[in-house]
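Retry 2 of 3 after timeout on previous attempt. Resubmitting structure tokens to design endpoint.
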């Protein structure tokens, strides 16, 4: 279903430019209420961007003017908003965040009453009502919730077996000056870990600035300099996770899925002996689970599509190479803190450091590129790009693959080549990138 504004993770863009403006946010609020029907109650949370309060006020103005009621959760990780909606039996949730994007950007995404992101069809209905959803004769109300952070910390801790502790574990934690700047350190300290927290002084402009889960070298540096046994890093809204081992070497989402998935498989708790990953995940993940009697199903990139695959197959674990991990028994969306707690539990119970645990996954070499584009025409309409892709596929056959796709949240084309010969992958990744740049570079 075609949507003009909603991408793979809500509506996103530069604040002050359409569609990320107060006027548009107010329309979204009214359209959401109209789509839900009746007098819905909507939880609203945000990250630490300076534009967050302005967009929140506008969104809430739209919700209440259309007859809905809003519960304001303040600064809270995205998974905390989803969990609050479910726990309180609300009708929907809204998060004002642009995740790992810079502070100049912002976005708005919605959750249904069941805690899952709105399906494409519902987002399309909202878009169809943007210009027609009117005000109600009896406006709704807005109420601040002051204990939302405490609620989320307790929710995350409940994902662990009773009696679990992290005594004796020294950790470096990078909160990206984002939504988890209080909650993740609090949860880890409650379990007895020795926590050195970094990038926990948000000023509205420093979210993700040289820190967070997209800047792997930062948590690596902090881990080594603080002498920690493990490093943990979030993105701006803390729905994803980056861990690094005691040497400062980061683990990607595939390695985390391997560790967590094998643990569940050995416990007999991995439904259908299957995990969900995306088309970007390493082929080594498939080989690992096949060797243990399990399998990997693949979805399109985006945690919403991983979730769709999980729900369709009755699966309990899924994730992305980027660090979005979904433990469906403990939440309805990617949750950086819950994911970290599951991996840390495995570390503590096994007595093994991450540098050893990660060795279960033998990864194929990959080469990745990102090309800024001015437009996103169908790739099959770009003959030079198709020729470069075909040449690359033939060169890395038979056990290799080429994936080219457009980002759902940024004006970029992403390229992935995977195979056995790293040098060959790099060569053809450059060739495909050059063909894309020549055709549609910004």
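Retry 2 succeeded. Sequence:
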């Amino acid at each position: 279903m075609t949507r003009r504004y909603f991408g793979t993770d809500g509506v996103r863009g530069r604040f002050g430019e359409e569609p990320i403006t107060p006027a548009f946010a107010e329309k979204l609020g009214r359209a959401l209420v109209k789509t839900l029907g009746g007098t819905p109650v909507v939880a609203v949370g945000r990250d630490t961007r300076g534009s967050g309060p302005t967009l929140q006020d506008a969104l809430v103005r739209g919700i209440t003017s259309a007859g809905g009621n809003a519960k304001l959760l303040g600064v809270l990780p995205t998974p905390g908003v989803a969990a609050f909606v479910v726990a309180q039996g609300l009708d929907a949730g809204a998060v004002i965040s642009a995740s790992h994007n810079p502070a100049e950007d912002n976005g708005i995404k919605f959750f249904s009453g069941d805690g899952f992101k709105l399906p494409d069809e519902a987002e399309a209905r909202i878009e169809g009502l943007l210009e027609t959803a009117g005000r109600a004769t009896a406006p709704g109300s807005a109420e601040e919730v002051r204990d939302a952070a405490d609620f989320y910390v307790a929710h995350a801790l409940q994902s662990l077996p009773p009696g679990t502790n992290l005594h004796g574990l020294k950790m470096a934690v990078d909160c990206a000056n984002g939504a988890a700047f209080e909650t993740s350190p609090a949860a880890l300290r409650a379990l007895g870990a020795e926590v050195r927290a970094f990038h926990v002084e948000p000023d509205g402009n420093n979210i993700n600035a040289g820190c967070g889960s997209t800047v792997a070298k930062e948590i690596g540096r902090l881990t080594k300099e603080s002498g920690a046994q493990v490093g943990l890093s979030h993105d701006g809204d803390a729905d994803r996770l980056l861990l690094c081992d005691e040497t400062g070497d980061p683990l990607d989402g595939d390695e985390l899925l391997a560790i967590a998935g094998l643990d569940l498989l050995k416990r007999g708790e991995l439904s259908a002996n299957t995990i969900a990953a995306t088309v970007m995940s390493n082929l080594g993940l498939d080989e690992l689970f096949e060797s243990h009697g399990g399998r990997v199903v693949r979805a399109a990139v985006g945690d919403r599509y991983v979730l769709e695959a999980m729900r369709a197959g009755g699966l309990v674990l899924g994730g992305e190479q980027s660090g979005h991990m979904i433990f469906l028994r403990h939440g309805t969306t990617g949750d950086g803190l819950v994911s970290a707690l599951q991996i840390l539990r495995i570390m503590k119970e096994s007595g093994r450091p991450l540098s050893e645990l990660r060795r279960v996954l033998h990864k194929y070499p990959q080469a990745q590129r990102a090309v800024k584009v001015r437009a996103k025409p169908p790739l099959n309409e770009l003959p030079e790009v198709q020729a470069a892709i075909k040449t690359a596929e033939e060169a890395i056959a038979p056990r290799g693959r080429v994936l080219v796709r457009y980002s759902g949240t940024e004006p970029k084309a992403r390229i992935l080549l995977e195979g056995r010969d790293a040098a060959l992958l790099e060569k053809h990744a450059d060739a495909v990138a050059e063909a894309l740049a020549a055709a549609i570079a910004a």
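Attempt log closed. The chain has a mean pLDDT of 96.
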